[in-house]
Protein backbone atom coordinates (compact mmCIF):
# COMPACT_ATOMS: atom_id res chain seq x y z
CA UNK A 1 0.00 0.00 0.00
CA UNK A 2 1.26 3.54 -0.66
CA UNK A 3 -0.57 5.02 2.34
CA UNK A 4 1.87 6.38 4.94
CA UNK A 5 2.91 4.10 7.80
CA UNK A 6 2.02 5.79 11.09
CA UNK A 7 3.62 4.96 14.43
CA UNK A 8 1.25 5.89 17.28
CA UNK A 9 2.35 6.38 20.89
CA UNK A 10 -0.05 6.61 23.84
CA UNK A 11 0.93 7.31 27.47
CA UNK A 12 -1.89 9.46 28.90
CA UNK A 13 -2.71 7.23 31.86
CA UNK A 14 -1.43 3.79 32.92
CA UNK A 15 -1.08 2.08 29.53
CA UNK A 16 2.03 2.40 27.38
CA UNK A 17 0.56 1.78 23.92
CA UNK A 18 2.27 1.62 20.55
CA UNK A 19 0.49 0.89 17.27
CA UNK A 20 1.33 0.80 13.56
CA UNK A 21 -1.39 1.77 11.12
CA UNK A 22 -1.83 2.44 7.39
CA UNK A 23 -5.12 4.18 6.61
CA UNK A 24 -7.78 2.04 8.32
CA UNK A 25 -5.52 -0.99 8.60
CA UNK A 26 -3.97 -2.03 11.91
CA UNK A 27 -0.64 -3.71 11.14
CA UNK A 28 0.45 -4.44 14.69
CA UNK A 29 0.41 -3.08 18.21
CA UNK A 30 1.59 -3.67 21.74
CA UNK A 31 0.37 -2.42 25.12
CA UNK A 32 2.21 -2.56 28.45
CA UNK A 33 0.04 -1.77 31.47
CA UNK A 34 1.12 -0.66 34.93
CA UNK A 35 -2.34 -1.46 36.35
CA UNK A 36 -0.88 -4.16 38.65
CA UNK A 37 1.30 -1.53 40.34
CA UNK A 38 -1.77 0.63 41.14
CA UNK A 39 -4.07 -2.11 42.47
CA UNK A 40 -3.05 -1.71 46.11
CA UNK A 41 -3.76 2.05 45.93
CA UNK A 42 -7.22 1.53 44.42
CA UNK A 43 -6.45 3.96 41.61
CA UNK A 44 -3.72 5.18 39.28
CA UNK A 45 -0.73 6.81 41.05
CA UNK A 46 0.71 9.37 38.58
CA UNK A 47 4.37 9.02 39.63
CA UNK A 48 4.22 5.24 39.41
CA UNK A 49 2.58 5.46 35.98
CA UNK A 50 5.23 7.87 34.62
CA UNK A 51 8.10 5.67 35.72
CA UNK A 52 6.44 2.60 34.24
CA UNK A 53 6.02 4.39 30.88
CA UNK A 54 9.70 5.26 30.86
CA UNK A 55 10.69 1.63 31.45
CA UNK A 56 8.16 0.20 29.00
CA UNK A 57 8.58 2.60 26.08
CA UNK A 58 11.46 1.10 24.10
CA UNK A 59 10.45 -2.58 24.50
CA UNK A 60 6.83 -1.74 23.64
CA UNK A 61 7.88 0.04 20.43
CA UNK A 62 10.04 -2.99 19.58
CA UNK A 63 7.17 -5.45 20.18
CA UNK A 64 4.74 -3.38 18.08
CA UNK A 65 7.21 -3.21 15.17
CA UNK A 66 7.76 -6.98 15.39
CA UNK A 67 3.99 -7.62 15.51
CA UNK A 68 3.52 -5.45 12.42
CA UNK A 69 6.50 -7.00 10.63
CA UNK A 70 7.99 -3.58 9.83
CA UNK A 71 11.22 -1.76 10.67
CA UNK A 72 11.52 1.55 12.47
CA UNK A 73 13.00 2.99 9.27
CA UNK A 74 9.76 2.13 7.40
CA UNK A 75 7.78 4.60 9.55
CA UNK A 76 6.55 7.69 7.66
CA UNK A 77 5.14 9.75 10.54
CA UNK A 78 4.82 9.65 14.32
CA UNK A 79 1.59 10.46 16.16
CA UNK A 80 1.49 10.91 19.92
CA UNK A 81 -1.11 11.74 22.56
CA UNK A 82 -0.57 15.41 23.49
CA UNK A 83 -3.49 15.34 26.01
CA UNK A 84 -5.71 15.14 27.90
CA UNK A 85 -4.09 12.96 30.56
CA UNK A 86 -1.65 12.85 33.46
CA UNK A 87 1.12 15.46 33.12
CA UNK A 88 4.13 13.25 33.80
CA UNK A 89 2.72 10.33 31.84
CA UNK A 90 2.03 12.46 28.75
CA UNK A 91 5.52 13.93 28.95
CA UNK A 92 7.16 10.50 28.64
CA UNK A 93 5.21 9.67 25.47
CA UNK A 94 5.72 13.08 23.86
CA UNK A 95 9.44 13.04 24.65
CA UNK A 96 9.82 9.58 23.14
CA UNK A 97 7.82 10.60 20.05
CA UNK A 98 10.06 13.67 19.55
CA UNK A 99 13.16 11.50 19.84
CA UNK A 100 11.84 9.07 17.19
CA UNK A 101 10.78 11.95 14.92
CA UNK A 102 14.18 13.57 15.23
CA UNK A 103 16.16 10.36 14.79
CA UNK A 104 14.10 9.24 11.76
CA UNK A 105 13.69 12.77 10.37
CA UNK A 106 9.93 12.18 10.04
CA UNK A 107 7.03 14.50 10.92
CA UNK A 108 5.53 14.51 14.42
CA UNK A 109 1.79 14.94 15.08
CA UNK A 110 0.40 15.66 18.56
CA UNK A 111 -3.19 14.39 18.72
CA UNK A 112 -6.10 14.33 21.14
CA UNK A 113 -6.58 11.20 23.23
CA UNK A 114 -10.40 11.44 23.27
CA UNK A 115 -10.64 11.69 19.49
CA UNK A 116 -8.25 8.73 19.27
CA UNK A 117 -10.82 6.63 21.13
CA UNK A 118 -13.24 7.38 18.28
CA UNK A 119 -10.75 7.03 15.40
CA UNK A 120 -9.82 3.51 16.53
CA UNK A 121 -13.23 2.27 15.41
CA UNK A 122 -12.10 2.71 11.80
CA UNK A 123 -9.56 -0.10 12.31
CA UNK A 124 -12.41 -2.46 13.07
CA UNK A 125 -15.40 -1.20 11.09
CA UNK A 126 -13.84 0.86 8.29
CA UNK A 127 -14.29 4.58 7.53
CA UNK A 128 -16.56 6.34 10.02
CA UNK A 129 -19.68 7.89 8.46
CA UNK A 130 -19.80 11.68 8.80
CA UNK A 131 -21.13 13.02 11.05
CA UNK A 132 -21.15 10.54 13.94
CA UNK A 133 -21.84 10.81 17.66
CA UNK A 134 -19.32 9.26 20.05
CA UNK A 135 -19.79 8.28 23.68
CA UNK A 136 -16.46 7.86 25.48
CA UNK A 137 -16.68 6.10 28.80
CA UNK A 138 -13.58 5.12 30.75
CA UNK A 139 -11.91 5.50 34.12
CA UNK A 140 -10.80 9.01 33.18
CA UNK A 141 -13.52 10.37 30.94
CA UNK A 142 -17.22 10.47 30.15
CA UNK A 143 -17.73 12.55 27.01
CA UNK A 144 -20.32 12.90 24.32
CA UNK A 145 -18.83 14.17 21.05
CA UNK A 146 -20.25 15.27 17.72
CA UNK A 147 -17.68 14.09 15.19
CA UNK A 148 -18.03 15.97 11.90
CA UNK A 149 -14.48 15.08 10.87
CA UNK A 150 -11.96 13.15 12.96
CA UNK A 151 -9.00 15.32 11.93
CA UNK A 152 -10.55 18.76 11.83
CA UNK A 153 -13.99 19.09 13.39
CA UNK A 154 -15.01 17.46 16.66
CA UNK A 155 -17.45 19.26 18.98
CA UNK A 156 -17.92 18.42 22.65
CA UNK A 157 -21.63 18.12 23.47
CA UNK A 158 -21.31 17.10 27.10
CA UNK A 159 -19.09 15.73 29.83
CA UNK A 160 -19.28 14.45 33.35
CA UNK A 161 -19.49 17.24 35.91
CA UNK A 162 -17.89 15.04 38.59
CA UNK A 163 -16.78 11.38 38.43
CA UNK A 164 -16.12 9.53 35.18
CA UNK A 165 -18.33 6.50 34.50
CA UNK A 166 -15.50 4.02 35.08
CA UNK A 167 -14.47 5.89 38.20
CA UNK A 168 -18.02 5.42 39.53
CA UNK A 169 -17.70 1.68 38.87
CA UNK A 170 -14.35 1.62 40.69
CA UNK A 171 -15.66 3.56 43.71
CA UNK A 172 -18.86 1.52 44.00
CA UNK A 173 -16.86 -1.71 43.70
CA UNK A 174 -14.83 -0.58 46.69
CA UNK A 175 -18.05 0.04 48.68
CA UNK A 176 -19.15 -3.50 47.82
CA UNK A 177 -15.75 -5.06 48.67
CA UNK A 178 -15.17 -6.01 45.03
CA UNK A 179 -11.65 -5.79 43.52
CA UNK A 180 -10.14 -2.93 41.48
CA UNK A 181 -10.73 -2.14 38.65
CA UNK A 182 -14.39 -2.37 39.58
CA UNK A 183 -16.05 -2.54 36.16
CA UNK A 184 -15.61 -6.24 35.37
CA UNK A 185 -16.65 -7.58 38.84
CA UNK A 186 -19.70 -5.29 38.99
CA UNK A 187 -20.64 -6.36 35.46
CA UNK A 188 -20.40 -10.03 36.54
CA UNK A 189 -22.31 -9.53 39.82
CA UNK A 190 -25.01 -7.48 38.10
CA UNK A 191 -25.82 -10.36 35.78
CA UNK A 192 -26.97 -12.34 38.84
CA UNK A 193 -28.90 -9.47 40.43
CA UNK A 194 -32.22 -7.66 40.10
CA UNK A 195 -31.81 -4.14 38.65
CA UNK A 196 -35.23 -3.18 40.06
CA UNK A 197 -34.31 -4.18 43.64
CA UNK A 198 -33.36 -0.57 44.44
CA UNK A 199 -34.16 2.58 42.49
CA UNK A 200 -30.98 4.66 42.52
CA UNK A 201 -30.98 8.29 41.27
CA UNK A 202 -30.41 9.03 37.58
CA UNK A 203 -27.84 11.87 37.63
CA UNK A 204 -28.69 14.79 35.30
CA UNK A 205 -31.41 12.72 33.70
CA UNK A 206 -33.70 14.86 31.54
CA UNK A 207 -31.96 18.11 32.51
CA UNK A 208 -31.80 19.26 28.90
CA UNK A 209 -27.99 18.95 28.68
CA UNK A 210 -25.65 16.21 27.49
CA UNK A 211 -23.68 16.35 30.73
CA UNK A 212 -23.44 13.49 33.19
CA UNK A 213 -23.08 13.17 36.96
CA UNK A 214 -22.25 10.03 38.92
CA UNK A 215 -21.19 11.25 42.35
CA UNK A 216 -24.78 11.45 43.66
CA UNK A 217 -25.32 7.86 42.54
CA UNK A 218 -22.15 6.76 44.33
CA UNK A 219 -23.34 8.52 47.51
CA UNK A 220 -26.75 6.84 47.22
CA UNK A 221 -25.08 3.43 47.00
CA UNK A 222 -22.90 4.27 50.03
CA UNK A 223 -25.97 5.31 52.03
CA UNK A 224 -27.80 2.14 50.99
CA UNK A 225 -24.87 0.00 52.17
CA UNK A 226 -24.65 1.90 55.50
CA UNK A 227 -28.41 1.53 56.09
CA UNK A 228 -28.27 -2.22 55.51
CA UNK A 229 -25.27 -2.44 57.88
CA UNK A 230 -27.03 -0.46 60.58
CA UNK A 231 -30.14 -2.63 60.35
CA UNK A 232 -27.99 -5.75 60.38
CA UNK A 233 -29.47 -6.83 57.05
CA UNK A 234 -27.31 -8.92 54.73
CA UNK A 235 -25.96 -7.03 51.72
CA UNK A 236 -27.15 -8.51 48.42
CA UNK A 237 -24.16 -7.40 46.36
CA UNK A 238 -25.57 -8.71 43.07
CA UNK A 239 -28.77 -6.66 43.49
CA UNK A 240 -26.95 -3.45 44.40
CA UNK A 241 -24.52 -3.94 41.50
CA UNK A 242 -27.41 -4.50 39.10
CA UNK A 243 -29.36 -1.45 40.35
CA UNK A 244 -26.26 0.78 40.23
CA UNK A 245 -25.39 -0.41 36.73
CA UNK A 246 -28.98 0.11 35.58
CA UNK A 247 -28.78 3.79 36.57
CA UNK A 248 -25.43 4.32 34.79
CA UNK A 249 -26.42 2.50 31.61
CA UNK A 250 -29.85 4.11 31.45
CA UNK A 251 -28.53 7.69 31.49
CA UNK A 252 -25.54 7.01 29.19
CA UNK A 253 -27.56 5.32 26.46
CA UNK A 254 -30.50 7.71 26.65
CA UNK A 255 -28.36 10.84 26.30
CA UNK A 256 -26.22 9.30 23.55
CA UNK A 257 -29.22 8.27 21.45
CA UNK A 258 -30.98 11.59 22.15
CA UNK A 259 -27.90 13.37 20.75
CA UNK A 260 -28.08 11.25 17.58
CA UNK A 261 -31.74 12.09 17.11
CA UNK A 262 -31.34 15.80 17.86
CA UNK A 263 -28.41 16.18 15.45
CA UNK A 264 -29.86 13.90 12.77
CA UNK A 265 -26.86 11.55 13.07
CA UNK A 266 -27.13 7.92 11.97
CA UNK A 267 -24.04 6.45 13.68
CA UNK A 268 -23.12 6.08 17.35
CA UNK A 269 -19.65 4.95 18.44
CA UNK A 270 -19.15 3.80 22.04
CA UNK A 271 -15.55 3.47 23.19
CA UNK A 272 -13.39 3.52 26.33
CA UNK A 273 -12.95 0.81 28.96
CA UNK A 274 -16.59 0.90 30.10
CA UNK A 275 -17.70 0.07 26.53
CA UNK A 276 -16.82 -3.52 27.45
CA UNK A 277 -19.82 -3.49 29.82
CA UNK A 278 -22.39 -6.09 28.81
CA UNK A 279 -25.43 -4.14 29.99
CA UNK A 280 -24.25 -0.94 28.28
CA UNK A 281 -23.83 -2.81 24.99
CA UNK A 282 -27.24 -4.49 25.27
CA UNK A 283 -29.12 -1.29 26.18
CA UNK A 284 -27.32 0.72 23.51
CA UNK A 285 -28.17 -1.90 20.89
CA UNK A 286 -31.83 -1.80 21.88
CA UNK A 287 -32.09 2.01 21.93
CA UNK A 288 -30.15 2.39 18.67
CA UNK A 289 -32.38 -0.17 16.95
CA UNK A 290 -35.48 1.72 18.11
CA UNK A 291 -34.04 5.04 16.87
CA UNK A 292 -32.70 3.65 13.57
CA UNK A 293 -29.11 4.44 14.52
CA UNK A 294 -26.14 2.22 13.57
CA UNK A 295 -24.14 1.25 16.67
CA UNK A 296 -20.39 0.72 16.44
CA UNK A 297 -18.45 -0.64 19.41
CA UNK A 298 -14.81 -1.59 18.78
CA UNK A 299 -13.60 -4.86 20.32
CA UNK A 300 -12.64 -4.47 24.00
CA UNK A 301 -8.89 -4.47 23.33
CA UNK A 302 -9.28 -1.42 21.07
CA UNK A 303 -11.70 0.32 23.48
CA UNK A 304 -9.18 0.56 26.31
CA UNK A 305 -6.15 2.84 25.99
CA UNK A 306 -3.76 1.69 23.26
CA UNK A 307 -1.34 3.00 20.64
CA UNK A 308 -3.37 1.88 17.64
CA UNK A 309 -6.01 4.53 18.38
CA UNK A 310 -3.38 7.26 18.27
CA UNK A 311 -1.92 5.87 15.03
CA UNK A 312 -5.45 5.66 13.56
CA UNK A 313 -6.05 9.33 14.34
CA UNK A 314 -2.57 10.21 13.09
CA UNK A 315 -3.44 8.59 9.76
CA UNK A 316 -6.53 10.84 9.52
CA UNK A 317 -4.55 13.96 10.38
CA UNK A 318 -1.89 13.15 7.77
CA UNK A 319 -4.57 12.37 5.16
CA UNK A 320 -6.26 15.72 5.90
CA UNK A 321 -2.99 17.47 5.10
CA UNK A 322 -2.69 19.20 8.45
CA UNK A 323 0.75 20.64 9.27
CA UNK A 324 2.97 18.60 11.61
CA UNK A 325 3.59 19.72 15.19
CA UNK A 326 6.90 21.39 15.90
CA UNK A 327 9.53 19.58 17.93
CA UNK A 328 8.69 21.78 20.91
CA UNK A 329 5.16 20.32 21.00
CA UNK A 330 3.78 20.82 24.52
CA UNK A 331 1.60 18.42 26.47
CA UNK A 332 -1.78 19.68 27.73
CA UNK A 333 -3.38 17.79 30.63
CA UNK A 334 -6.83 19.16 29.71
CA UNK A 335 -6.46 19.44 25.92
CA UNK A 336 -9.89 20.26 24.40
CA UNK A 337 -11.13 18.29 21.36
O1 LIG B 1 -10.18 2.91 28.99
P1 LIG B 1 -9.69 2.31 30.25
O2 LIG B 1 -8.98 0.98 30.20
O3 LIG B 1 -8.68 3.27 30.97
C1 LIG B 1 -8.93 4.63 31.18
O4 LIG B 1 -9.55 4.92 32.21
O5 LIG B 1 -8.54 5.45 30.33
O6 LIG B 1 -10.92 2.21 31.23
C2 LIG B 1 -10.81 1.63 32.51
C3 LIG B 1 -12.14 1.74 33.21
C4 LIG B 1 -12.08 1.31 34.66
O7 LIG B 1 -12.72 2.28 35.45
C5 LIG B 1 -12.85 -0.01 34.66
O8 LIG B 1 -13.51 -0.24 35.90
C6 LIG B 1 -13.83 0.19 33.53
O9 LIG B 1 -13.10 0.88 32.54
N1 LIG B 1 -14.34 -1.09 32.99
C7 LIG B 1 -15.63 -1.45 33.02
C8 LIG B 1 -15.71 -2.77 32.46
N2 LIG B 1 -14.44 -3.13 32.09
C9 LIG B 1 -13.62 -2.09 32.42
N3 LIG B 1 -16.71 -0.81 33.48
C10 LIG B 1 -17.88 -1.44 33.40
N4 LIG B 1 -18.04 -2.69 32.89
C11 LIG B 1 -16.99 -3.38 32.41
N5 LIG B 1 -17.17 -4.62 31.93
ZN1 LIG C 1 -8.71 6.72 27.38
From TrEMBL:
InterPro entries: ATPase_NBD, Gcp-like_dom, KAE1/TsaD, Peptidase_M22_CS, TsaD
E.C. no: 2.3.1.234
Entry's cofactor comment: Binds 1 Fe(2+) ion per subunit.
All copies of domain Gcp-like, residue ranges: 25-311
Stored SUPFAM superfamilies: Actin-like ATPase domain (SSF53067)
NCBIfam families assigned: gcp_kae1, T6A_TsaD_YgjD
Cross-referenced Pfam families: TsaD
Chain residues that bind substrate: 136-140, 170, 183, 187, 277
Organism of derivation: Nocardiopsis algeriensis
Family as reported in the entry's similarity comment: Belongs to the KAE1 / TsaD family.
Name recorded for this polypeptide: tRNA N6-adenosine threonylcarbamoyltransferase
Cofactor(s) the protein requires to work: Fe(2+)
CDD domains per UniProt: ASKHA_NBD_TsaD_bac
PANTHER family xref list: TRNA N6-ADENOSINE THREONYLCARBAMOYLTRANSFERASE, TRNA N6-ADENOSINE THREONYLCARBAMOYLTRANSFERASE, MITOCHONDRIAL
Catalytically driven reaction(s): L-threonylcarbamoyladenylate + adenosine(37) in tRNA = N(6)-L-threonylcarbamoyladenosine(37) in tRNA + AMP + H(+)
Amino acid sequence: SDLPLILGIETSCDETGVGLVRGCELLGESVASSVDQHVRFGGVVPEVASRAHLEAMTPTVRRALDAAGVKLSDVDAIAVTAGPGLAGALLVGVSAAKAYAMALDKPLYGVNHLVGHVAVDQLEHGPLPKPAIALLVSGGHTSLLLVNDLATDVVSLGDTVDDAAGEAYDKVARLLDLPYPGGPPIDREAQKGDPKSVRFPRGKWGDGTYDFSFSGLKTAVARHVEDADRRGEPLVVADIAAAFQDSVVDVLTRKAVDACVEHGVGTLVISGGVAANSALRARAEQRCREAGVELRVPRPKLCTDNGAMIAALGAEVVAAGLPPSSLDLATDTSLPV
